[in-house]
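ligand=shikimate-3-phosphate
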Amino acid sequence: MSNIVKIKNKIGNFKKTITVPGDKSLSIRWVLFSSLANGTSTAKNLLMSEDVLAAIEAVKKLGIKVIINKKESKIFGKGIDGYKYKKNLKINAKNSGTLGRLILGLLVNSSNTIHLIGDKSLSKRDFSRVSEPLSKFGAKFRLRNNNFLPLKINGSSNLKPIKYSENKGSAQCKSSIIFAAMRTEGTTIIKAKKSRNHTELLCKYLKLPIRVKNFKNFDKIEVNKVKKIKTLNYDIPSDISSSAFFIVLTALSKKSELIIKNVNINPTRIGIITILKKMGVRIIFKNQKTYKGEKKADIKIVSAKNIKAINCPPKLNSGAIDEFLVIFLVAAKAKGISYFRNLSELNQKESPRLKWAEKILTNLGVKTITSNDSIKIYGNPNLNLSLDKRVIIKNYLKDHRVFMASLIAALSFGGKWTIHDKDSINTSFPDFLKIIGKLKK
Ligand code: S3P
């Protein structure tokens, strides 16, 4: 089957209700926490994507039994000290930064050397951001060129608590340290710039020894050694990052309306909603509920009429970090110049996303001024590509979000698009094209 998608027409108007798959961050965390629990944990609506399957493979290698099932998956945890560290164990995090970084926190006490590898994209990403603080607990690391995968970790049986300042706004770094602290006698103290707080919420739900104090610009987190983890039966809400593609497609399409059911709207994840509302897009939450500390709701979006440019406050960056490629598409259609800054983290993702944003916007005929950590977008409310304008998207390190954002650009603005590496969507959202198909009917 061809791995290329060709788009020749904009999408017509639609009025639909859809469901997107389970949240990726929560799915991976369910796998990791359940692997440490005493007994059998279950998950409904677990995201069946390559990143989550890689997490499942990883815990299986550590001796944990898993049954994957569309309706309900099960993990048979063996307790906090239940992992088996066989000699020369190799864990493959594939494309997943979340898995690669979080699992290292859980391996700080391994009794044998463990090798962590990843795919081409993950092997270009910085792992010293977790190996450095984790080595302060007492684990030993060897990384390729001191920064990259493949790496080796040698755990310690004599871990010492640390004081750690997380200043990138990275939930992966913060969570990795929380996991290591759960294995360490004494109190680890983390001062963390605001970022998604799923790990802390799960710790609280599981009644683990964690204390979180929220300040205006950071959180202070104290973690003590965990003795026992109860099982975690979780009905995973849908992923706002997957929803984002459809939120933007609806906003940019004429006479359209969409409801996305049962989406995780954790306040640390809804930067895209805040930003788009400031730009004049109409979005409302319906049926809001709280579930195991997380918030969820149905999201309703209608076509946007007059999109306003935005000078985006950097404090919204972390809560929208995975959504910027599509947020920039909205800015491309805004009246005026939008400005997004302090975004160096975007170039640390599965591909250098700020650079890819510039390429996609240039293909759309939109002027940008881009630096290493900022982008100015000169919006055009009448943006529309001529029927014969050709755009080819390829060699983007198979970054799932570059593929999906390009497809949304094609369906929103027209032109003749050839987008390579369709299989990149398997990382986070294998049903993406199926749902696009539903909106076209
Ligand atoms: C994630 C954290 C974010 C995000 C990633 C998922 C998580 O990464 O981009 O898709 O589940 O903790 P950073 O922590 O590197 O910002």
